[in-house]
Design brief:
This protein has helices at residues 22-33, 45-59, 73-87, 111-138, 160-178, 198-203, 219-226, and strands at residues 13-17, 37-42, 64-67, 92-95, 143-147, 186-191, 236-238. By secondary structure, the chain is of the alpha/beta class. A 7-stranded parallel beta sheet has the order 3-2-1-4-5-6-7, with helices on both faces.
Length: 249
């Protein structure tokens, strides 16, 4: 168990979407090590409960668990009100949840799949911004980080819906950041690069996943953007894989 009171995020309230596995789970564990109180969002309650067990092992207290389908915009609106009543602020938002959708020629993508990818990867983050912006402004050093992908900036064949959604996310977040230039709130995008996740395995089923860094290897890149000392604003930051901190589970 770590001493949460001495961490780089000690006392900070951090909201993380897609927190039950992969990058989101790794970021949650790293933030817990650094003293953050976590508000963990994912669709599956059972997976969130397992994540909470890991948080307890790290810092000795529970996270706030929010089973939520990010396509439910009304529920995201209620989230902001609930967190305001409970905490009065949010210090860190990590918009990490994402959906790959169907890979293939653009003209083969069903409209329903296109709409779902856009709903999760773009619209849900817009709703989170809309709901949590007032709480982030209540922080002395609000930080928002959104997970993007290199396909947003390249014409990668057969990734039409996913690539378009990440390109839209990047532009949306950059516009949001530009609107905050005279505030204490800093907003950035983080490109994790190639990481060993379930999404990567789905997109490239024939490759050896062990050739890529595990999600925990990029967790510090999120941590640096979440700290009160963070300076970047309105940028796309490339993650730098590194070793897991000494003493980690």
């Amino acid at each position: 168990m770590t001493d949460a009171s001495q961490g780089r995020l000690a006392g900070r309230i951090a909201v993380i979407t897609g927190a039950s596995r992969g990058i989101g789970a790794a970021v949650a564990e790293r933030f817990a090590q650094e003293g953050a109180h976590l508000v963990l969002i994912a669709r599956t309650e059972g997976a969130l409960t397992e994540m909470d067990d890991r948080v307890r092992e790290i810092r000795g207290d529970s996270a706030t668990l929010v089973p939520l389908d990010l396509q439910d915009g009304d529920a995201i609106d209620r989230l902001g009100a609930t967190l305001y009543q409970r905490y009065g602020r949010v210090d860190v938002l990590v918009g990490n949840a994402g959906m790959l959708g169907q890979l293939g020629p653009m003209h083969h993508i069903p409209p329903s799949v296109w709409q779902e990818v856009m709903a999760v990867n773009v619209t849900a983050n817009f709703r989170l911004i809309r709901s949590l912006d007032p709480l982030l402004r209540q922080s002395d050093a609000g930080r928002a980080i959104f997970t993007t992908s290199g396909v947003a900036r390249s014409a990668f064949a057969y990734f039409g819906a996913y690539a378009a959604s990440k390109a839209a996310l990047e532009q949306m977040v950059k516009v949001y950041a530009a609107e905050l230039n005279k505030t204490k709130l800093k907003v950035n995008l983080l490109d994790p690069g190639i990481v060993r996740t379930r999404m990567r395995a789905t997109a490239f089923p024939g490759e050896d996943p062990n050739q890529h860094p595990a999600p925990w290897a990029i967790a510090d890149s999120f941590l640096e953007l979440a700290e009160p000392a963070c300076e970047p604003h309105g940028e796309v930051v490339q993650a730098e894989p590194r070793e897991w901190p000494t003493g980690s589970a």
